[in-house]
Description:
By secondary structure, chain A is an alpha/beta fold. Helix content of chain A is 48%, strand content 11%.
Amino acid sequence: xxxxxxxxxxxxxxxxxxxxxxxxxxxxxxxxxxxxxxxxxxxxxxxxxxxxxxxxxxxxxxxxxxxxxxxxxxxxxxxxxxxxxxxxxxxxxxxxxxxxxxxxxxxxxxxxxxxxxxxxxxxxxxxxxxxxxxxxxxxxxxxxxxxxxxxxxxxxxxxxxxxxxxxxxxxxxxxxxxxxxxxxxxxxxxxxxxxxxxxxxxxxxxxxxxxxxxxxxxxxxxxxxxxxxxxxxxxxxxxxxxxxxxxxxxxxxxxxxxxxxxxxxxxxxxxxxxxxxxxxxxxxxxxxxxxxxxxxxxxxxxxxxxxxxxxxxxxxxxxxxxxxxxxxxxxxxxxxxxxxxxxxxxxxxxxxxxxxxxxxxxxxxxxxxxxxxxxxxxxxxxxxxxxx
Amino acid sequence: xxxxxxxxxxxxxxxxxxxxxxxxxxxxxxxxxxxxxxxxxxxxxxxxxxxxxxxxxxxxxxxxxxxxxxxxxxxxxxxxxxxxxxxxxxxxxxxxxxxxxxxxxxxxxxxxxxxxxxxxxxxxxxxxxxxxxxxxxxxxxxxxxxxxxxxxxxxxxxxxxxxxxxxxxxxxxxxxxxxxxxxxxxxxxxxxxxxxxxxxxxxxxxxxxxxxxxxxxxxxxxxxxxxxxxxxxxxxxxxxxxxxxxxxxxxxxxxxxxxxxxxxxxxxxxxxxxxxxxxxxxxxxxxxxxxxxxxxxxxxxxxxxxxxxxxxxxxxxxxxxxxxxxxxxxxxxxxxxxxxxxxxxxxxxxxxxxxxxxxxxxxxxxxxxxxxxxxxxxxxxxxxxxxx
Lengths: 388, 388
C-alpha cells in the first residue's frame, strides 16, 4: 500500500550520445578542485579519460587523480580516497566508471570529513550523516547498479568478510550524472550480462514483497518486460543503441527509490550474493545470478500469488488449466532459461565457492525481513547448497 | 528512441494520510509572506483550509488570500493574482486545490514580475522565463493534471477563445507538493471520473507516438493497467484508500516528464479538448473524453502497430486468428466500454456543443505534429462532428 512516504530525487541526468557536453553545464557550479575517481584504467583505453580531462581543463579545474577503484571497493581504498579528498580540498568528486566507482565516490564524499572511523559509523552502525558532504558527479561507463541516481554505496571489508551497502539520504545522491549508452559498448560480455542481471534482480527484490495492489508492481512489470526484450537484443548485438539505451535507462529507474514506494522489499538475493562476494571477490551480478534460482524456488510457496502474477505478466505464461503452483513454477523456469541464454553464472562453483566455504558464507549473510519468508540459518545454508 | 535529453525533477513529494505535516518541514525555508491560492471554497467545507491555516500561523506566516480560482483559470484572474503577489511581496505561493489551482499558482509565479504582458509573452509567444520566479508549493485536493510535479500551467483567454498550456522549465516546478489521497474522497463523482480520464489521456497522448522500442512505452502500459484496475474500484468505493492512493500516484507520474522520454508525443486530444473548453468552459477531463474515441478511431490506421500493442498489452485482447486491424479495433472498443462504465461524457452535445459551434472550435484548435497523423482542418472538423 502507498502509505506515508517522502519522494525526492534531485539528481540531474544528461542522457544520450552527446551527453558528455552536460559536464560543461555542471562544472562551473563547483570550485576548482576536482577529485577524479576511476577504476582499472579501461577509460584510458577507450578514450573517455581524455575527453573528460579535456573538459576539466577547459573549465580551469585542478584535477586530483584517485585511480584503481576495484570492482568491490574496499575499506582500505576508502581511507585512501578520504585522504586524497582532504589533501586536495576537493570541491567536487567526479566518478568516471560503473557502479563501484560511483558507490566509492559517494562513500568518500560522506567519509572524508567524518571524525570517527567511517566504516564503523556508516556501515557497521548505519548512522545518518552529520558531517560535511563533498558533492559527487558521475560519468557512467557501465550499467547495472543504479548508483548514478541514488544514495547507495557498498563497501567491502575483506578482513571482516563483510560487504555492506549503506543507502544514504538525498544529500548524498550524485548532483548530476552523465549517461551515454555508447560508453557501454566496449564493456566485455561478462560484465555486460552481469550488469543486466543486477538490474533484473534490483527489480525482483522489490517486486517480490507485499500482497497489496500497488502501482509500483505495475511499473516494475513494465521495466522487466522492457529489460528482457532489450537484453536479448543487446547480447546478440552489443552496439545496438536502442537496446543499450533502454537498458541504461531501466537500470537507473530500477533503483532510484521510485519503484520501492509502498513495498517492504526483500533484498535477500543481494544479501546472499554480497556474502559470496565477501568470500570470493566475484563479480556482483554473477553472485546474484548464482543464488537466485535456489532462493526464488525456496521463497515461491510463501508468495505464491505474486510468483503466479510474475509468470503471467512478465513471462506471458498462459494460466489456463494449470494450478497456481504450476503457473508460478513455469514462470521461474522461463526466467531460468532466459538467464542461461544470457550466459549468466548459474552455479556458485563457477565463482570458486566450495562446500567447505558455505559455513563462512552463511555467517556473512545479513538477514532482511521484507520478503515473503525470513530465512533462518538452516534455510540459508540449504539455499547456498542448492546454488553450488 | 532514447536520444539526447536532460531529466531533472526537483519537486519534493510528501505522500500519504499524514503528509500535511510535511508543510512544517517546508515552510521554514521561505520568508514570511505566503500567498494562499485556492478555488471556490470547497476546502473551507471539508476542513482542509482550517488545517492549512493553522500550520501557516504556527509557522509565523503572514497570509495573503487569493481565492476564487476557477476550473479554467482566466487571464483576468492571472492579472489579479500577479497584483496580489506583488503587493504582498509573496515569498511563497501556496496552492491548495486541484490542477487548476496549481497551474494558476505557477502562472502567477512567473508572471508577477514579468515586465511585459504575461499572456502575450508566456502564452502567445511561448518565451522562456527571464524574470524573478516566486517559489510555489502545493497541497493537492484533486488528482488528474499532474501539475503538482511538473512545469505545466494552462490559462484560458475567453475573449480570444484560447486555452493554452505553457510547460515551464524545472525552476517553475513546485518546490514541494503534499499528496494526501484522503483529501480526494469528498470530490464529486463527476470531477473524480473526469480527473481519472485526464490521467488516462495524459498517458495515451504520449504512448501513441513513435514506432520504436522504448522503455517509456512499457512504463506507460504499467501505469495504464494500474489506473484501469484502481479506477474501477474507486468508482464503486470512493473511500478505498488503496485505489485512491494508486490513482493519485499514477497521476503524478503520468505527466512529470518521465514517460515522455524518447517520445515525440501527440497531444491532439488535449488540443481538441482545450478548444472545446475555450468555447464552453466545460470540465477539462470531460472535454477530452468526448473527443477521444473519434480521434483515436481517426488516427488508428496511421499507427496500427501501436494500437494493436495497446489492445494486447493494456486491454488483454487475444490476437489469435485476428487481423491487426481487428485487434486494434477491439482494443478501442474495450477502452470505450471502460469509459462508459466510468460514467464519462462520451459526446460533445452533453457539454453544450452544437453543430453551429464547430467552425469556431476548429479555428481554436492548435495543431501538434508529434502523433501518427497531423490532422488538417477538414479532419479536425470531421473528428469534432463524430464527437457530437
